[in-house]
Every structure is written in structure tokens, then in C-alpha cells.
């Protein structure tokens, strides 16, 4: 392989490696931040100590996951200036401001309230602390909004022009760039995926502790909440994924052709290939197991609708079929397993056996990491399916890489692999250690003594008796909230 091609391949592998590691943590923290807001809101509404116990339990896990997400995300920015400096120069006038908005809005919002969320419950009082938790949850969503807007624009670029220096620059309204054609579908699909990923982790942790103690009230509550999420949200995610697929067929047909394994066009109904082995050399799917015309029904809602194949795409613009074909099936297969788990939990709930059916608990435990696998498989499907472009049909990947030597990229890739597996391996081990220990009853009540600043009384005790099972009461007095 020529040195330039090898450098390009290594740069792509490095970016794929680092972004895959990074994506795991935001996918978890987006959902977990919202779950924490729900738990604290339920505690404020009901006064039940069970909810604040669970809040404090998951808050420790959130803090570690959030920190690893921040650290792994910093590396991504540097790669744009090292391995992909040409891409940054050409597309920077469009994507640069959007990424800056993510920092100025989402990251500052998260950073501003995260300290209050982690350490301020005894300092600011329960309602203001709940507001801080909500701000962090909203910040994670805003972060997803901007990042997915940038990434979606790279798939369906709109609202730009090319200047004399060959740069892609905004043309007209920024709304055309932000709300590009694929963005709404990708935002909904990705955020729901984050919620499901969190629900599966929470359900697995609850199942683990139920297998040890069926009477554990904390395990029962977290398992029940997670199973409701799996049962109700998974069908919505499947529908959102189908709508996203139809949008992709309209704007990136080659990606869908690779996902479906359609090397050949089908003028009178295309089959749905369930499994098979892509053969790029012969341009066919070997040992295909397929359902006649079902792909046309899914994609066009007509059994006899024609579907174009990769034989209509030039070879040099054809995405890597094998990777896209299999990653798509991993994502879809896991999605239907999530649906099966949700339906199983509804059946167990109807039978009154949600907390004493070991088969369900073991199923939920095994499904715990599948949310992460599914989001990575979906990300691979999306990004590899866009190849050979960084900006679809505008800027090719080979024209985006920096002029680096292969040994330099190989050295940095090796360093990333060693450091990432060491640091994040330890972080993951610590998260699993925290999850293995169950939530403890009777967590310390927030703010049980007045806080005095500059001689004035601030936040006093929550409630009158100090009992942890009481709903926090609020009385407005001359010295603030008590």
C-alpha cells in the first residue's frame, strides 16, 4: 500500500477508535442525567427516601461517566487539527461556529451546574439543587443537538457555497445549515438510543441485585422503572429508526443499498436479505437468506416498487458494503432483542412476577451492555456508509486528510490504544464496582443545618422533623427558604 493511502487508513482507524470510545460515555450520560432529574423530582414530589437513595447512588456513577466523556471528547478536537487539518480548513467556516455554540451553550451549562449537582445539595436546598440537576440534563441534550447538527450536515450538506479558496462557507440562513434534512431524524434516533442505553444499564443493575435479594426495595424500583422504559420506548425507537432509514434512502441511497446488501437493482420488488456474506469482488451476497420483495415493502411501502442497487453507483463512490451490512444487522438485531425484553417484562408484570422471575432478571442482566453495542453499531453504519466522503458528495475523505507520514499516524494510534485501554479500562472497572454495590437505605438528608454566609442565614433544614421519609417543605421567611 502506498504511504499516503496507509496514512489515510491509519488516520481513519484512529478517528474511529477514539470516537467509538468517546461515544459510549455521552450515550450513557445523556440518559442518566435525565434519569437523575426524574429521581430527584419524584423525591421532591413524594418525599420518599427511596428516590433520594437511588439519586445519590446513580449520581456517583454519573460523575465518573461524565468525567470520562469529557476527557475522551477533548482528543476529538485535536484530531481535527492534526490528522484532518485539510478538512478543518475546507469545512471549518461551517462546522466551526456550530461546535463553538456547543461549547458556549451546552458545555458551559453543564460545567456551571455540575458542581452544584455533585456537591451542593447541602448548600443550596432541594429545589434549587433539583434545578441544577435539570440544567445538567438539559445541557447534555443541547450538546447532542449541536454535535448531531454538525455531523448531520456532513451527511446532508445544505446552506453553503464554495469560495475562491475552495472553502465551504455559509450561504443564506444558518437555519438551513443547522436544520439540514437528516438532522431531525438523527437527533430523535440518537437521543432515544441514549435513553434506552441508560435504561438497559439501570435494568441490568437492578436485575443483578434482585438475583441476590428479591426483597431489595432499591433494586425493585430501579428495575421496574427501567423495564417500563424498555417496554414503552423501544417500539418508538424502532419507528424512529424506520423513519430515519426512509430519510437516508432519499438523501444517501448508496448507504441504504449497502445496508440492504443490494448489489443489483430490482425493477419489480427487492428482497429483504436477512443474513448472508457480502462478496465485494463478485458484487453479490453469498449464502443469502432473504424474504422476497419485503425490502421494497419496508422502504417504499409497495411490494413491487423498484429499488436501485449499487450497480448504479461508480465503484470509487461505493461504501464498504461488508462493514455497513453487518453493523446494520447488529443494530437492528439488538433493537428487536430490546423489544423482546420489554414485552417479557410486561408479561411478568401482568403475572405479578416482575421481581421474582430469575429468567427475566438474567435476560435483563445479559442485555445490560447491548445499548452501547447498538449505538456503536449504528454509528459505524452511519459513518462508514457515508464513505468515501467526509462531506457527502462534496468533499472526499482522501482529500480531507492532513499530509502526514504513515509512521507518525501509527505512533499516535498506538499511544491512543495503550492510554485509552489503560485509563478508560480502569474507569470502566470502577463503574462496574460501583454498580455491583447496591444502593444503601437512609442516605444522608440534604442540608440538615443552616448555612451562614456573610452573617446571613441561607438554607435551613429540610422539613421540620429531620425524618428522611418526609417530603421537603418550604416556608418563605425573612432569611430565605427554610
UniProtKB/TrEMBL annotation:
Ranges annotated as biased composition (Basic and acidic residues): 468-482
Lineage, uppermost ranks: Bacteria, Pseudomonadati, Pseudomonadota, Alphaproteobacteria, Sphingomonadales
GO molecular function terms attached to this record: oxidoreductase activity
Family that this chain belongs to: Belongs to the cytochrome ubiquinol oxidase subunit 1 family.
Transmembrane spans: 15-36, 57-78, 98-121, 128-148, 192-211, 223-240, 323-347, 359-380, 408-432
Keywords associated with the record: Cell membrane, Electron transport, Heme, Iron, Membrane, Metal-binding, Oxidoreductase, Transmembrane, Transmembrane helix, Transport
InterPro entries: Cyt-d_ubiquinol_oxidase_su_1
Region (Disordered): 457-482
Transport in keyword set: yes
Catalytic EC class: oxidoreductase
UniProt protein name: Cytochrome d ubiquinol oxidase subunit I
Principal place of residence: membrane
Keyword Transport: yes
Topology within the bilayer: Multi-pass membrane protein
EC number: 1.10.3.-
Cell compartment(s), UniProt: Cell inner membrane; Cell membrane
Amino acid at each position: 500500500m502506498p504511504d499516503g493511502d496507509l496514512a489515510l487508513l491509519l488516520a481513519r482507524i484512529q478517528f474511529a477508535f477514539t470516537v467509538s470510545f468517546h461515544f459510549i460515555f455521552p450515550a450513557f450520560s445523556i440518559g442518566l442525567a435525565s434519569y437523575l432529574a426524574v429521581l430527584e423530582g419524584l423525591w421532591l414530589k413524594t418525599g420518599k427516601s427511596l428516590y433520594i437513595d437511588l439519586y445519590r447512588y446513580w449520581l456517583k456513577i454519573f460523575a465518573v461517566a461524565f468525567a470520562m466523556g469529557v476527557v475522551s471528547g477533548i482528543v476529538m478536537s485535536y484530531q481535527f487539527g492534526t490528522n484532518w487539518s485539510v478538512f478543518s480548513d475546507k469545512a471549518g467556516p461551517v462546522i466551526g461556529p456550530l461546535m463553538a455554540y456547543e461549547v458556549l451553550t451546552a458545555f458551559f451549562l453543564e460545567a456551571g451546574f455540575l458542581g452544584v449537582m455533585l456537591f451542593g445539595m447541602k448548600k443550596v436546598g432541594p429545589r434549587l439543587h433539583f434545578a441544577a440537576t435539570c440544567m445538567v440534563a438539559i445541557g447534555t441534550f443541547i450538546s447532542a443537538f449541536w454535535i448531531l447538527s454538525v455531523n448531520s450536515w456532513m451527511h446532508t450538506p445544505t446552506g453553503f457555497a464554495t469560495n475562491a479558496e475552495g472553502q465551504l462557507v455559509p450561504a443564506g440562513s444558518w437555519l438551513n445549515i443547522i436544520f439540514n434534512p437528516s438532522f431531525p431524524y438523527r437527533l430523535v434516533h440518537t437521543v432515544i438510543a441514549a435513553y434506552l442505553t441508560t435504561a438497559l444499564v439501570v435494568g441490568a443493575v437492578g436485575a443483578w441485585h434482585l438475583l441476590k435479594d428479591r426483597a431489595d426495595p432499591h433494586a425493585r424500583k430501579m428495575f421496574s422503572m427501567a423495564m417500563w422504559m424498555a417496554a414503552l420506548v423501544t417500539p418508538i425507537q424502532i419507528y424512529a429508526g424506520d423513519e430515519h432509514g426512509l430519510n437516508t434512502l432519499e438523501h444517501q441511497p448508496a448507504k441504504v443499498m449497502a445496508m440492504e446488501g443490494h448489489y443489483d437493482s430490482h425493477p419489480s420488488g427487492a428482497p429483504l436479505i436477512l443474513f448472508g456474506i457480502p462478496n465485494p469482488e463478485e458484487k453479490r451476497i453469498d449464502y443469502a437468506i432473504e424474504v422476497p420483495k419485503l425490502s421494497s415493502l419496508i422502504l417504499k411501502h409497495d411490494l413491487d416498487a423498484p429499488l436501485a442497487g449499487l450497480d448504479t453507483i461508480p465503484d470509487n463512490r461505493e461504501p464498504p458494503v461488508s462493514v455497513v451490512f453487518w453493523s446494520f444487522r447488529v443494530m437492528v438485531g439488538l433493537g428487536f432483542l430490546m423489544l423482546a425484553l420489554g414485552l417479557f417484562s410486561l408479561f411478568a408484570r401482568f403475572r405479578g412476577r416482575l421481581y421474582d422471575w430469575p429468567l427475566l432478571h438474567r435476560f435483563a442482566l445479559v442485555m445490560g451492555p447491548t445499548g452501547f453495542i447498538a449505538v456503536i453499531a449504528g454509528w459505524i453504519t452511519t459513518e462508514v456508509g457515508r464513505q468515501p466522503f467526509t462531506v457527502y458528495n462534496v468533499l472526499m475523505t482522501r482529500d480531507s486528510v492532513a499530509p502526514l507520514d504513515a509512521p507518525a499516524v501509527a505512533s499516535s494510534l498506538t499511544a491512543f490504544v495503550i492510554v485509552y485501554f489503560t485509563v478508560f479500562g480502569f474507569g470502566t472497572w470502577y463503574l462496574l464496582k460501583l454498580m455491583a454495590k447496591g444502593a444503601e437505605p437512609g442516605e444522608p438528608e440534604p442540608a440538615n443545618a443552616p448555612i451562614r454566609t456573610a452573617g446571613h442565614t441561607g438554607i435551613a433544614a429540610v422539613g421540620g422533623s429531620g425524618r428522611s421519609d418526609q417530603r421537603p417543605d418550604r416556608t418563605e421567611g425573612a432569611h430565605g427558604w427554610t
